[in-house]
Design a protein that fits this description.
The chain is mainly alpha-helical. Helix content is 63%, strand content 8%. Helix 6 runs antiparallel to helix 9.
């Protein structure tokens, strides 16, 4: 951790951007209410849009000066590539978009929840210390290959269990945890459960990245199918062999076991009836949905892996599809010929076989060629150039962002006199700072439903870096009243 790395992270991280955003408390609260507190992973656009509108009404009734724009504008901005607080996607069989929290939003919500818990409640120091000691003790014992170390541990455990059984049988009483200790351990378990639910986004994003790379390389057609398939399978195997992937698939085996599910449900039922936890309403609600929530999270990741497998199958089925298409064409030709001969069908139907074997093109055999030689490759491990990476981050940091709200406001002002204007007229009255602004206006025209004609063009004149004039030919864009 260095000031330079922190500076780059603070300037580029969507999580930090969310914490710094205008009306950040209200945005985080809305995302928490709709996703985390409601225990849902995906929300349809038709459900999230009215929910945001109702949330804005609540803020206005409480006299909060926040989130006063259209709710659809906020959803578009929050799921844009600049913000990345929500992920907007389509599911198979669904006709509308779905929204899902990104790992950045998950991290912000978890950070704020932990901060509030530490500021407004207690910090379970004893339970944390015991958990740390137990984890370190188990690591030191079970990671050792010395039989004596393991036998000593098991005998101590056997003696402790025997002593506890004897005390219960003699006294008929059981030592229970203190109420404070119960609440400490319960709060710690709830926190770890929430962190676990947020970790699924990272695993899911890695599988999605592999699938996107496969699709992009397949569409571009620059690589052979074998190379794409090999790289995809190699990336998937590497992910499964990494600590994160190994941990996830072991978790999957655990949570999908019916015995473990029944065990978790029994534990949850006991916790819900404990008097010491009666006031832990929010934590109990999280625990109540624990099994179903973990299964849903795991299913989301498995759905992503199935989509990756489907992409690989489609890649392998290219030859099969061509063969099926050829058979379909031949069957169609046979049906057409049969329809033509239906009025006068042939009397004799047979098959002629040419049994003679003739040698043709005896000189078609290729000349001798030297055998293939293996190409020597340099397998030296690649070392990243940290200085180059820092320079690239600095250049990225210095890029001027596009002010979408200001550009849309200029468009609305230009439409007030006549209700329409072209992009050339707008740029004449409001000269842009560079070519990036022209691209921004074109993007707004496409997104907000204005008229964009590909069959007509117009020329605009812009100043370049040397204060000369630069002429651009762009599609004819007409902004009209009624756009978003």
């Amino acid at each position: 951790m260095t000031p330079e790395k922190l500076s780059i992270y603070f300037d580029t991280s969507p999580a930090v951007s969310l914490l710094r955003a205008d009306h950040s408390p209200f945005i985080v609260c809305f995302l928490y209410e709709r996703f985390k507190r409601a225990h849902v992973i995906d929300i349809a656009h038709s459900d999230l849009l009215p929910a945001l509108a109702a949330y804005q009404e609540r803020l206005q009734e409480a006299s909060y000066p926040a989130l006063r724009d259209k709710p659809e504008d906020y959803l578009r901005i929050w799921s844009s590539s600049e913000k990345r607080w929500l992920r907007r996607h389509l599911e198979v069989g669904r006709m509308e978009a779905l929204y899902q929290l990104t790992p950045h939003s998950e991290a912000v919500i978890e950070f704020v929840s932990q901060a509030l818990q530490q500021d407004l409640s207690f910090v379970g120091t004893e339970s944390r210390l015991r958990l740390v000691m137990q984890a370190l003790e188990e690591l030191s014992i079970k990671a050792s290959d010395d039989p004596q170390v393991r036998l000593k541990f098991l005998r101590e455990e056997q003696a402790r269990i025997a002593t506890e059984i004897e005390e219960i049988e003699q006294l008929g009483q059981v030592k229970t945890l203190a109420p404070t200790r119960i609440r400490e351990q319960f709060a710690l378990a709830v926190r770890m459960l929430r962190e676990l639910q947020g970790d699924f986004r990272a695993v899911e994003e890695k599988f999605k990245e592999i699938r996107r790379q496969v699709q992009q390389r397949q569409v571009q057609g620059l690589d052979a199918r074998g190379g794409i398939l090999g790289d995809a399978l190699g990336a998937e195997d590497a992910l499964k062999s990494q600590d994160q992937g190994v941990s996830f698939f072991e978790f999957l085996k655990f949570i999908q076991s019916p015995q473990q599910q029944d065990r978790l449900r029994d534990i949850i039922r006991q916790l819900l009836h404990m008097r010491e936890l009666a006031d832990q309403t929010e934590g109990l609600e999280t625990i109540r949905h624990m099994v179903r929530g973990l299964l849903d999270e795991a299913e989301k990741v498995l759905l992503t892996t199935r989509r990756l497998s489907a992409s690989l199958r489609r890649l392998l089925d290219t030859r099969s599809q061509q063969d099926r298409r050829r058979v379909t064409d031949l069957l169609h030709q046979i049906r057409v010929l049969a329809a033509k001969m239906c009025d006068d069908p042939p009397r004799d139907i047979g098959l002629e076989i040419d049994g003679t074997i003739e040698i043709s093109a005896p000189m078609s055999r290729t000349d001798w060629s030297p055998p293939l030689k293996f190409e020597q490759l340099d397998l030296t491990e690649h070392v990243a150039d940290e200085e180059l990476r820092r320079n690239l981050f600095r250049q990225f940091q210095q890029l001027r962002p596009i002010d979408w709200n200001t550009m849309r406001r200029r468009i609305r002002q230009a439409l007030e006199p006549n209700g329409h204007c072209t992009l050339g007229e707008l740029l004449h009255d409001e000269p842009p700072e560079g070519l990036i602004d022209v691209l921004g206006y074109l993007q707004i025209a496409c997104e907000d439903g204005h008229q964009v004609r590909a069959d007509a063009t117009e020329q605009v004149v812009l100043p370049d870096d040397e204060l000369d004039l630069m002429a651009l030919t762009i599609p004819l864009v007409t902004f009209v009243t009624g756009g978003k």
